[in-house]
C-alpha cells in the first residue's frame, strides 16, 4: 500500500515537476523489467498455464483430460520438469477452464522447450507487450476525449497492475487491451466487435458487457455488431466443440463457481449469517443464487436506461464490473484490473482505491497454508462500501436522473 501511495504522488505531481510523460512511462516499464526473470511468488497459476501449453504442443487437447490422465498419456516418466508442473499446479483436480485464445499464449510459452524459466520468460514478454499496448491505447483515448494524458501514469505505476500482470503472469491486461481497443474504435463497428470478442476470447467475463454494447449501438450497426461478434466467438471457441470438450470445460467452470472462495464480500457476509442456523458451507446454493442476482442487476443497468454517450457507457461498464465482483465468491486481486483501467477514463475512484485496499487480502499468503484474516477483509470492504455509497450518492444517481 506504501507503493500505491508513491504511485499517486508521482501522478499528482508529474506536471508540477515537469515530469515528461515518455520518461514516466520509461520508468514504469523499468520497474516491470526488474521482474523479467523472476518466478511468480504470489500465484501458482503459471504451472497450469505451462502444463496446458505443453499438452497442446504434444498434440493433446487440454479440455479432454485431467492433468494426471494427460500426464500418463505423455509417458514422460520421472521427468523433473513434468513432475514439477503436475505437483505444483493448484488445479490438478479439474479440466482446464482457460478459453482457447488464452491457450494460444500457453502454447507459445511451451515452444521454449522443457525449461521452466524460458517458458515463464515467454509468457512475461507477451504480458509486457500488451502492457505497452494498453498504455498507448489509454494515451490515444485520453487525447481523443480531451483529457490529460498524464492520467496514463495511474495505470503505468499502479502496484497491483505491475505485480499481478508482469509479476504473477495474469492475463487481465490482455482483456483490458480488447476493451480499450473496442472503445477506441467504437465508431467503426467491425473493429469494435472484433476487439470485444478478443477480450471474451481471453476471459469469459466480458460477455456480461454484451447487453449494454447492443444497447449502445442502433439500427444496422447493432445487427452488424451482434452477428460479427457471434461469428468470431464461435470461431474462437471451436476447440471446445471437438469430442465434447465443452462438457468438461463447463463442468470445471461450474465447479469453480460453486467450490472456490477467496476475498468475497456479499458472499462472505451471507455465509456468516447463514452460519447461525446452518452447520455446513452453503456455497453450492449461494454461489449460483448470487450469480443470478448479479445477472439481474447487470441486465437492469444495461437495458433499463436510455442510450448513453461514450463516457456514460464506460462508467456503466465500470459499475457492471463492480456488481459482478461484489457478488462473486472468489475475487482474486487481478480481477480488478480491467475495470480499473477503464475507470481511469472516467475518473472512477472506486477501483482506484480498491487496487490499494485489495492488498489487504494478500495477508492470506503469509503462512504456509492460505488462510484469510477476517479483520483485514473487514477493513477492506468497510472502506470500499463507504466509498461506493459516497460515489453512488454523488455521481450515479445524478447520471440516472439525467438519462
TrEMBL record:
Origin superkingdom: Bacteria
Protein's name according to its UniProt entry: Mannosyltransferase
Keyword Membrane belongs to the record: yes
UniProt KW Coiled coil keyword: no
The entry's keywords: Membrane, Transmembrane, Transmembrane helix
Organism: Belliella aquatica
Annotated Pfam families: MptA_B_family
Segments traversing the membrane: 24-42, 116-139, 160-187, 193-214, 223-242, 285-305, 317-337, 349-369, 375-392
Amino acid at each position: 500500500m506504501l507503493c500505491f501511495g508513491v504511485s499517486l504522488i508521482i501522478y499528482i505531481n508529474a506536471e508540477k515537476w515537469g515530469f515528461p510523460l515518455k520518461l514516466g512511462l520509461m520508468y514504469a516499464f523499468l520497474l516491470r523489467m526488474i521482474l523479467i526473470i523472476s518466478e511468480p511468488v504470489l500465484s501458482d497459476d503459471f504451472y497450469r498455464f505451462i502444463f496446458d501449453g505443453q499438452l497442446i504442443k504434444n498434440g493433446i487437447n487440454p479440455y479432454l483430460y485431467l492433468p494426471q490422465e494427460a500426464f500418463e498419456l505423455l509417458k514422460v516418466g520421472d521427468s523433473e520438469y513434468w513432475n514439477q508442473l503436475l505437483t505444483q499446479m493448484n488445479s490438478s483436480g479439474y479440466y482446464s477452464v482457460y478459453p482457447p485464445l488464452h491457450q494460444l499464449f500457453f502454447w507459445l510459452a511451451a515452444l521454449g522447450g522443457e525449461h521452466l524459466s524460458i517458458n515463464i520468460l515467454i509468457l512475461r514478454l507477451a504480458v509486457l507487450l500488451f502492457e505497452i499496448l494498453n498504455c498507448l491505447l489509454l494515451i490515444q483515448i485520453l487525447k481523443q476525449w480531451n483529457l490529460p494524458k498524464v492520467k496514463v501514469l495511474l495505470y503505468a505505476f499502479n502496484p497491483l497492475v505491475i505485480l499481478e500482470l508482469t509479476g504473477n503472469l495474469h492475463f487481465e491486461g490482455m482483456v483490458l487491451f480488447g476493451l480499450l481497443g473496442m472503445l477506441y474504435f467504437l465508431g467503426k463497428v467491425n473493429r469494435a466487435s472484433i476487439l470485444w470478442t478478443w477480450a471474451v476470447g481471453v476471459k469469459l467475463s466480458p460477455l456480461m458487457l454484451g447487453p449494454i454494447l447492443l444497447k449502445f449501438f442502433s439500427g444496422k450497426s447493432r445487427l452488424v455488431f451482434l452477428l460479427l461478434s457471434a461469428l468470431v466467438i464461435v470461431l474462437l471457441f471451436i476447440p471446445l466443440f471437438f469430442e465434447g470438450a465443452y462438457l468438461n470445460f463447463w463442468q470445471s467452470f461450474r465447479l469453480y463457481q460453486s467450490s472456490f472462495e477467496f476475498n468475497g464480500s456479499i458472499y462472505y457476509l451471507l455465509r456468516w449469517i447463514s452460519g447461525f442456523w446452518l452447520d455446513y458451507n452453503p456455497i453450492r446454493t449461494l454461489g449460483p443464487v448470487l450469480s443470478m442476482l448479479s445477472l439481474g442487476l447487470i441486465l437492469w443497468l444495461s437495458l433499463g436506461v436510455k442510450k448513453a454517450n461514450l463516457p456514460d457507457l464506460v462508467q456503466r461498464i465500470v459499475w457492471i464490473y463492480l456488481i459482478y465482483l461484489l457478488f462473486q465468491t472468489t475475487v482474486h486481486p487481478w480481477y480488478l484490473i480491467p475495470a480499473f483501467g477503464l475507470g481511469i477514463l472516467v475518473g472512477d475512484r472506486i477501483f482506484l482505491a480498491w487496487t490499494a485496499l485489495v492488498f489487504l487480502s494478500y495477508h492470506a499468503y503469509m503462512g504456509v497454508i492460505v488462510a484469510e484474516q477476517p479483520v483485514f477483509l473487514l477493513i477492506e470492504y468497510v472502506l470500499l462500501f463507504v466509498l461506493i455509497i459516497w460515489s453512488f450518492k454523488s455521481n450515479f444517481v445524478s447520471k440516472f436522473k439525467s438519462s
